[in-house]
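Subject: for your reference before the review

Hello V.,

The reviewers asked for a structural picture of the protein, and I figured it would be easier to keep everything in one thread rather than splitting it across files. Below is the amino acid sequence we used in the manuscript, unchanged from the supplementary table.
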Amino acid sequence: MASRTAPRRGAAPAVWTGVLVVALLASTAVLGRPTTYPQDGAAAWLPPDGTRQRYASATGTFASEWALDQAPPLLGSGPTAFYSWLGQTGVDWQTAALARLSTVFESPSGEPLGREDDLYSVAPDGLRAEAEVVSDGTTRIYLPGRLDVPGALAAGATWASSGVVVETTPAGEQRLDYRSDYSALRPADTSLIPRGCVVVAMRHAVGDRPVVDSEVTWCRGAGIASFQGPAGRWAPATPAAPPVPTDDPGFDWARAEQLTFTPRTVNQVGAANVLLSPLSAPGVLPDGRLVFNNHVTSHDVLALDTAVDPPPAAWRGRPGGRTTATATFGGVTVAAGTGRRLVAYGPAGQWLWDQPLGDLAVVTPARLGGLVVVPTLDGQVTAFDLATGQKRWSYTASAEVRVAPVVTGDRVLVADQAGQLSCLDATGAELWTADTGLVEHLGVWAGTGGRPSVVVVPEGGGSHVRGLSLQDGSRLWRVREDADTDDVVALGDVVALRDDAQTLALDPLTGARRWRWAGARTYAGTGGGGRLLMLTAAGLVLLDADGGVAKEWPLSVGDPTRSTPYLVASQQRVVVYGAAGLQVGVLP
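And here is what came back from the structure prediction:
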């Protein structure tokens, strides 16, 4: 943990950093899952990957989160100053084990005040603080790293660490000598002794500045238990996270033709360019930041600030292990990983709450009023309070769930791998279950004018489509349509079924075909009201409810056949993601 003084942004030559970015990307693809992380020596004092803790003092609170990984996936999430460290350090990034401690500071009322990301190297000789990056644009890089925890830490030990700190502020960069003198003490709180805790006292001197005294209590296998510095003592606490708005105005499809798009650079070689590898469509925060769930170039949830180009990483989170599923609802992002926990982050990346999951969650969670509904591979479908994380109810499907649930009104539809489609109410009670066979996509047409709502289910194999009553699950119709449906979108008085080669519109009450559009190969689609927006190799095409082309936008986000593109409409924005770039559309 940093001494809570202001770090600075380091500066490595752009060419050097660009070379490192290429090397990191290549090695990430080769390395795949990181090699075994060290377990002994100083690493034994670190907590498990994805560990979170909230601390409190008289001046406020802060929430910390640990990420443990090899250099390529960890540095891929930024901040970019970590690349500056990489260009100056003697640490071998190809073999180094690293730890990142991310901290969000909050006022007593819970308002986010700032962020810090601290980078540690983990080696046999100890745990070294390598870089400290604060959200106000300041950075410190220690050369060599500051030895905060020696390999054989024990009460009574003393040691020292010295070198040069490269300190950068918006006013410029300076190189200063640093020296840190340490002593390890038994905790005054005797209850910490059985946990293997040791207090590390540090006297830290930088240049001719006043010496800073601090104490950090490290506990074996658990990380930092408490911290004391010039700003007072910070001890573990469990204050309730402040409420975060979850409203999402969606998108005004009646004005879709007025969209204007701005390109943003990602996945390009360069010092400031973020490398992305999302598993699913990005989330959109109220301020326009985009939230991605990476799984190759990093194992983090990553928020990008699209107000500038290239968009920098505004914050990063580690739900634990590899990220498997995320969703953003207003200002709250929920994320699950291979650590089998569901974690909620606020719009500034602050940790709100987390809950254990019985198994992996691999599909996008859904929002049901004030609840978030999360299916897992063991067949459990669990609803958590979106504001507090409290578990509200759980439902057991007949098999594992690999299809994202669909919410309509106060009901949620869950399709499992046994071919059962179940309709649940807002309390998790089963209203009906229908035998539909395996399905990959479904949608709901909300009845208007007294007409019944219809669940439209393309059957696996692409040969038939059926319509079921939302009320009781009874079959209303079944028609033959040879389409391998990728998206089901309700558009006014029709339901559109999009596959790569064509888009079909069916009457939701009878299943009769209304129109067919095959003007171009499409790769993603979304819509609402009377508009359907689809991504083609040339850009975007907007269809009206009658299948006519209302408008086209020539856009480029890279070859859509080389990676999965995503198309999202949320927070009055449309986002198009491809391997070679982003396009962000806004309404006037």
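For the response letter, the relevant points are probably these. Residues 14-236 form one domain. The longest helix spans residues 14-31.

Happy to draft the paragraph if you're swamped.

O.
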